[in-house]
Design brief:
seven-stranded mixed sheet; 10 helices; alpha/beta
Length: 297
């Protein structure tokens, strides 16, 4: 996405469609709603089309347009680091959203703490499997993209809790579903064929957790397994929890609206923090219906 206005401040946000369509749609919805509150902002969208090369080209083009602020949601941390540095060198403030880059030379990072979210998921998994010091069971973990920092953080945070439980066994060795439901379905279908007992699935996002659920349902084993996901979009993960298809999800709030607010503050001469960490929330059957109601669903 790109914010641009000729007579006033010009903003640019570039997104890469690495996230599932539901999260991307929510990201767009949130930031468009925020932009509508600010008549001085014109929002232009660029889409990296799930390609680092395209996103780099988009950012280079925006630098040439001399936008006043750039908001970047990278597909890959390393791939966008160089062009973010180019923007900074061109004196354009850069607000990095969702996934960070491999330099500290940016204006601000806005996003969830994926390790913190992973810890919350791991703590709940231990609870579901019998509680601290007593937890036991076979766990299938389906990774997001192996080259993305969020996947590693969601893995590391989760294992901070589950690795302390000797009764928990992991059935897969870093199987990546690339954040996609269909790939997670295939991973889970193979796991089901190879393992008579699976107690819990941890998907690094809700679409992959749901793909695993569908694979289990197709062989009549879904009722024996707990499914945990991450993202907690109202019309996706929260709905799946309300339907009883996922056991729980943990919110990973889209950072677009907050990123735009921060960019506007900065251009108005206000000081902004180097990092804004968005909170997470555990969503289970107990609170899913209320959350849907709050979002008009």
């Amino acid at each position: 996405m790109t914010f641009c206005e000729t007579a006033k401040a010009r903003y640019a946000l570039t997104l890469c469609a690495i996230a599932p369509s539901g999260r991307r749609a929510q990201f767009n919805k949130d930031i468009l709603a925020e932009a509508a509150k600010h008549p001085e902002v014109e929002l232009i969208v660029t889409d990296g089309e799930d390609k680092t090369e395209k996103q780099v080209a988009d950012v280079e083009n925006l630098i040439r347009q001399e936008v006043d602020a750039l908001l970047v949601s990278p597909k890959e941390s390393a791939g966008l680091t160089g062009v973010v540095q180019q923007a900074i060198d061109a004196k354009i403030p850069v607000f990095v959203l969702d996934r960070n880059v491999e330099t500290k030379d940016y204006t601000q990072f806005v996003g969830g703490d994926n390790k913190l979210i992973g810890r919350a998921a791991g703590e709940y998994a231990v609870e579901l499997l019998g509680g601290k010091g007593k937890a036991s069971g076979n766990v299938v973990e389906i990774w997001g993209g192996m080259g993305t920092q969020p996947a590693h953080d969601r893995h590391d945070g989760f294992h901070e809790f589950t690795d302390k439980e000797p009764g928990i066994k992991y059935l897969l060795d870093q199987q990546s579903g690339d954040w996609k439901q269909d790939q997670a379905y295939n991973i889970m279908a193979t796991a089901l064929r190879n393992n008579e007992k699976i107690d819990l699935v941890y998907g690094h996002n809700d679409p992959m957790a749901y793909g695993a659920y569908l694979a289990a349902k197709d062989v009549g084993r879904e009722k024996d397994i707990k499914f945990i996901g991450i993202d907690g979009l109202p019309n996706e993960g929260v709905q799946l929890v309300a339907n009883g298809e996922l056991t729980a999800t943990f919110t990973y709030v889209t950072p677009g609206a907050e990123g735009l607010r921060q960019a506007i503050k900065f251009l108005n001469g206000e000081k902004v923090e180097k990092t804004i960490t968005l909170p997470t929330q555990k969503i289970t059957k107990e609170n899913a219906a209320q959350i849907l109601k709050e979002h008009g669903l």
